[in-house]
Write a structure and sequence with these properties.
hydroquinone:oxygen oxidoreductase activity, 6-stranded mixed β-sheet, 534 residues, Immunoglobulin-like, copper, Cu-oxidase_C, mainly beta, 3 domains, CuRO_1_LCC, 5 helices, binds CU-O-CU linkage
């Protein structure tokens, strides 16, 4: 195993897109940021130095961080922010994972421009469990705002109004042409007869996305750095924070093919509905040859999303067994939704809040991991409820009850190595939306999913405990539920939140604390000496 060292300098960079120029926060002047390459088992050292006037932290989304929660990155959860002029060394080992992940800023909305790919190759000499591709290509999907993104979120927070939507979707940092502003869009160059491994990442803040290439099916082989059974499809559905590796065979002779990216939102409120235009271009294609076009699914094509998600299965081979917990120590049922709270300074006298089991999470001012490690009292309370306060029935008229939210920095405590079943129930109250939920510190198995109310008596009988897909982020369907299982084998403080940044901002988040185990390798390592203070 090697040590992979990276220098990440946070700097301001002037960038022009959609015919307007603004200064954005980047790593080393790059957008998207630099790719981290490593092999399974490697140690990764990233020295982050903050040269801007914003506080910064970076999260290595999906990296398990076994016993190294100090390097996980969410601001005020596992660390205090890295202040202007300060630096911090993120130091972790890539254990038991290989595939594609992403890294992104985890404070305010800075991840709009601070994000990039993590490529974890198998250990030397270990082949992929699928035919070796000729080439590998990273495809990072995102959004672009012409306005300053920090101003967008600040305005939303102050007024209580929904934030402005983005102005375009982007592929590897490039928008397509929009009316009045020509732009070639990103082009993926391919050679006829070759096979490509596409490492597709959704780095968007607020949009779940469809991805499709005209005239080509692709075969999904891995999601969230866990291998899957090969799944051939013409459309990928990918939520923010999720990653998908897919094989593309360049089986045409020449030509230019549209690569389209469009948003999914099953109840369309306000969304950036500009389809990103990128192209697949075969070597030898004559200049100006017209592209082969395609259309992505309708914006509210819920069946496409559920078919895609339901067909994903973990590889579950001898070499890569799916170790699904078969027994459950903690059975949790979390309603996830959006409510309304009074707000004196807000335009309408009220503001939207996100709530899990009617609790809207309040960000602490001391990092929770430090509070946990040093037993600092008064920072969080141990009383996050396992169930919602009112029995929930989304078909019934219980809106008023479900709109009542409480606040708090509340955590749910798990004993080391206990097993957890968590049913995430979409409530459809106020903003009926699918919620991409992300759990830090673990991979989980998606053992069940459905529409309507979760039926605690009958639905578990249908759970897939054999080869459920393993991931770190799951889209919980509107008016539906997803059941996940994981083993609490990672001591520390772990964030669970909606990966739509607007919902995280509104409080749709909570925290698990996993206590140390008794064994020699079962406790959180001590904090690094350069850990920032709050
Ligand atoms: Cu990718 Cu807590 O986030």
């Amino acid at each position: 195993c090697k040590v992979r060292r990276y220098d990440f300098r946070v700097v301001l960079t002037n960038t022009t897109k959609l015919c307007s120029t603004k200064s954005i926060v980047t790593i080393n002047g790059k957008f998207p940021g630099p790719t981290i390459y490593a092999r399974e088992g490697d140690n990764v050292n990233i020295k982050l130095t903050n040269h801007v006037q914003y506080n910064v932290t970076i999260h290595w989304h999906g990296v398990r961080q076994l016993r190294t929660g100090w390097s996980d990155g969410p601001a005020y959860i596992t660390q205090c922010p890295i202040r202007p002029g300060q630096s911090y060394l993120y130091n972790f080992t890539l254990t038991g994972q290989r595939g594609t992940l992403l890294w992104h800023a985890h404070i305010s909305w800075l991840r709009a421009t601070i994000h990039g790919a993590i490529v974890i190759l198998p250990q030397k000499g270990v082949p992929y469990p699928f035919p070796k591709p000729d080439k590998e290509k990273i495809i990072i999907l995102g959004e672009w705002w012409k306005a300053d993104v920090e101003a967008v979120v600040n305005q939303a927070t102050q007024t209580g109004l929904p934030p402005n939507i983005s102005d375009a979707h982007i592929v590897n940092g490039q928008t397509g042409a929009v009316p009045g502003c020509p732009s070639p869009g990103f082009t993926l160059h391919v050679e006829s007869g070759k096979t490509y491994l596409l490492r597709i990442i959704n780095a968007a803040l607020n949009d779940e996305l469809f991805f499709k290439i005209a005239g080509h099916n692709i075969t999904v082989v891995e999601v969230d750095a866990a291998y899957t059974k090969p799944l051939s499809t013409d459309t990928i559905f990918i939520g923010p924070g999720q990653t998908t590796n897919a094989l593309l065979t360049a089986d045409k002779r020449v030509g230019k093919y549209l690569m389209a990216v469009s948003p999914f939102m099953d109840t369309v409120v306000a969304v950036d509905n500009v389809t990103a235009i990128a192209f697949l271009r075969y070597k030898g294609t004559i200049a100006f040859s017209p592209p082969v076009l395609t259309t992505t699914p309708a914006i509210n094509a819920t069946p496409v999303t559920s078919t895609f998600m339901d067909n994903l299965r973990s590889l579950n081979s001898k070499k890569y067994p799916a170790n699904v917990p078969l027994t459950v120590d903690h059975s949790l049922y979390f309603t996830i939704g959006v409510g309304i709270d009074p707000c004196a300074t807000c335009v309408n006298g009220s503001k939207a809040v996100g709530a899990i089991n009617n609790i809207s999470f309040i960000m602490p001012t001391t990092a929770l991991l430090q509070a946990h490690y040093y037993s600092i009292s008064g920072v969080f309370t141990d009383d996050f409820p396992a169930m919602p306060p009112n029995s929930f029935n989304y078909t019934g008229n219980n809106t008023a009850l479900n709109l009542q939210t409480n606040n708090g920095t509340r955590i749910y405590r798990l004993a080391f190595n206990s097993t957890v079943q968590l049913v995430l129930q979409g409530t459809t109250i106020i903003a009926p939306e699918s919620h991409p939920f992300h759990l830090h510190g673990f991979n989980f198995f998606v053992v069940g999913k459905g529409f309507g109310n979760f039926d605690a008596d009958n639905d578990p009988k249908k759970f897939n405990l054999a080869d459920p897909v393993e991931r770190n982020t799951i889209s919980v369907p509107t008016a539906g539920w997803a059941a996940i299982r994981f083993r609490a084998d990672n001591p520390g403080v772990w964030f669970l939140h909606c990966h739509l940044e607007v919902h995280t901002t509104w409080g749709l988040k909570m925290v698990f604390v996993v206590d140390n185990g008794e064994g020699p390798d079962e406790s959180l390592l001590p904090p690094p000496s350069d850990l920032p203070n709050c």
